[in-house]
Amino acid sequence: MSNYSDVQRAVRVEEFRIWFAWLTGNFIMAIIMNATKEVAVVSVITQVLMLLVFVALTVALFRMTGASNRKAAAARREVLGDDCPG
Fold first, then answer.
1. Structural contact between residues 4 and 80, judged by C-beta atoms closer than 8 angstroms
2. Which of 3, 16, 56, 79 is the most buried (most CB within 10 A)?
3. CA 29, CA 24: separation in Å to the nearest integer?
């Protein structure tokens, strides 16, 4: 059984990677939107698609972060023997 500090460190690294991927994805989307802003039809289509991708990335971000926090809470309860939920 690993100790709680190892679990905390792993969760922190995992959450950092999730947030970094979200930020990088949004940066790439901004570059694509900027590149297509001169072509009217393509610009509108790109903006709509990027909005949908942004919403999907944000939902995934919070779902993955929540799952990571639940995993950390379960590990804390296991390591510390704490029976209180949440």
1. yes
2. 79
3. 9
